[in-house]
């Protein structure tokens, strides 16, 4: 059921601050639901990024105990904790983590191995198979959930 009016935002961080600006079409009535409140011109007339704009900074996941000097130097004092460093992972690019978490298909062997990839629902393993691997499972009567614990 379509009972809402879509909203259109321009997102920009070129100034160093993240800014979201909402676009309103002049004919939009705030108290009425409209399924098409924008025109293609609204999108194409919006300011586009310049080619010479600086690239966004890379973001990193930094686990406790493995903080780099560029991070720890921002604090008035910092004590390295070896006990924490031993139990944490390495520094990872946020985009790598997001790519891994957004992955929606996995090879059959990876879904049969334990532990399962992070974010995989062990009760719905078949949804993570490629069409080819799904057909292989169907033909060979391979069960994915046989070793789920």
TrEMBL record:
Outline the extent of the HP domain: 100-149
SUPFAM superfamilies in the cross-refs = VHP, Villin headpiece domain
- The protein's name: HP domain-containing protein
Q: Which species does the entry assign this protein to?
A: Xenoophorus captivus
């Amino acid at each position: 059921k379509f009972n809402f009016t879509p909203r259109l935002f321009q997102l920009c961080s070129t100034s160093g601050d993240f800014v979201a600006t909402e676009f309103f079409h002049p004919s939009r009535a705030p108290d009425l639901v409209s399924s098409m409140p924008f025109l293609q011109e609204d999108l194409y007339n919006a300011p586009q990024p310049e080619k010479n704009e600086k690239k966004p900074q890379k973001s990193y996941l930094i686990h406790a105990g493995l903080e780099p000097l560029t991070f720890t130097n921002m604090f008035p004092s910092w004590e390295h904790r070896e006990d924490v460093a031993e139990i944490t992972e390495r520094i990872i690019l946020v985009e790598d983590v997001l790519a891994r978490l957004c992955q929606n298909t996995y090879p059959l062997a990876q879904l049969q191995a334990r532990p399962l990839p992070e974010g995989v629902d062990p009760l719905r393993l078949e949804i993570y198979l490629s069409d080819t691997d799904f057909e292989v499972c169907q033909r060979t009567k391979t069960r994915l959930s046989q070793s789920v614990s």
